[in-house]
Amino acid sequence: MCPDTDTTSDDPAHVVTAFLRHRSDVCCLRRSDAVGTYRGQWGGVSGFAAGNPDEQVRTEIREETGLEPGETVSIVRSGRPVAFEDPDLEREWVVHPYLFDCDTREIELSEEHDAAEWAPPTAILEDDRETVPELWTAYERVAPTVRSIAADDEHGAAFLSVRALEVLRDRAGLLVAEREESSEGSEIPRANGEPVSEATSSPRNGERGTREPGPRPADERDELTELAGRLLEARPSMAVLRNRVNRAMAGAAGDDRDDWGAPAVLESALSTIERALAADTETATNAADRLDGSVATLSRSGTVLEALEAGEPSRVFVAESRPAREGIDVAERLAATTDCTVTVHTDAAVAAVLAREDVDRVVVGADTVLPDGSVVNKTGTRTLAVAAAREAIPVSVVAATAKVSTREAVSLESGDRSAVYDGDAAIDALNPTFDVTPADCVTEIVTERGALAPAEIEAVATELRDLETW
């Protein structure tokens, strides 16, 4: 996370560090003998911020990995700078951290690094990995949080469910590292980057707190249980987030409800992330096998988009999906990555398009699938499905089984009313972001297990209810 050359200036050296994330791992780079500082230590993409850090970090990504920001790499967020002093180098550093998502793990190393490894961020905390100073602190500044998940209105439920698991994983990983450091009588890295003794914990938000030396599984369990509870409350309408967090915690608890702590949660969170990503990929693969001919869709589902890109549709009709118009993003992506004809139309035209055009199948994602087989998804899905039923066009809902809700009740989120009307007239505005499509308008739910009929969903809900007893 520090630059490739040293400097003798007395002023703090401003540097950028980028964490590149693919799926749920980040890219760790080992600094080579060609650099001036921290040789042989692991870090992220880094370099001096001579000018604008936001511009410099993209330059460093391009030079050190061969990836092109804006194409295969997209910004997620930047974080508050991390300031610290390295007494060995007699140097003050100010690190500007960034998180980017990558479409690939194929990178081309520059001479500044001699090795690269994609691994969970918690690998930064492992004893056998020497990292540049304050690497974990920099990562924490850009890592997903309960707050970022609650505020995210750009990504789908499956994406956010994995981010929720990452929050659980990261905190469990830090507690495991504290347990190991405490047992060795060493200093423990603080959440704010400052070391503390074994008698001091590293509470969330960097606040000071104390606990007795040595591992305290009960304390870890209480903290991680509370964190899991806050994750469940962050997006109460997202069944997939709830189910996957419940699976991770149930897996940690296992058959022994009295003696589990951070190590068990870390292991279970890692395996649940792997399972979740595999399920989403398999779901898209199963859906792709059904997508040929002419297809109609709406909104932006990452799994549906992946299925459309892997399938062989000859034409795709995409409703623009107002007010955010995320359908336009899908259409542009398909136009760039597939050979099919892509047509965009207004939301109000969905019934007319299905009546006039030769559409073979409607394919949509799902925020939640209710136990009776009805589907909660982006507003407009119900209109599209009802119109498809009128025209005898099959409707395929693409959703991993983790999206099945264990509850009959529905909590529908609404968007900002100003997105619909921001004028001065005395006009009320409605901006419902989700609607419910009846089960009798759904032909099948395509999952990682294959295609399920709406009537088969109740059995899946029963399985998922067993995970809620942790």
TrEMBL record:
What SUPFAM superfamilies does this protein's entry cite?
NagB/RpiA/CoA transferase-like, Nudix
Which positions fall inside the Nudix hydrolase domain? 11-144
Q: Does the keyword Amino-acid biosynthesis apply?
A: no
Keywords associated with the record? Initiation factor, Protein biosynthesis
What's a Pfam family in this record?
Answer: IF-2B
> In its keyword annotation, does this UniProt entry include Glycoprotein?
no
Name the GO terms of the biological process aspect: L-methionine salvage from methylthioadenosine
State the residue spans of region: Disordered. Answer: 178-221
Official protein name in the record = Initiation factor 2B
> Which organism is this entry from?
Natrinema saccharevitans
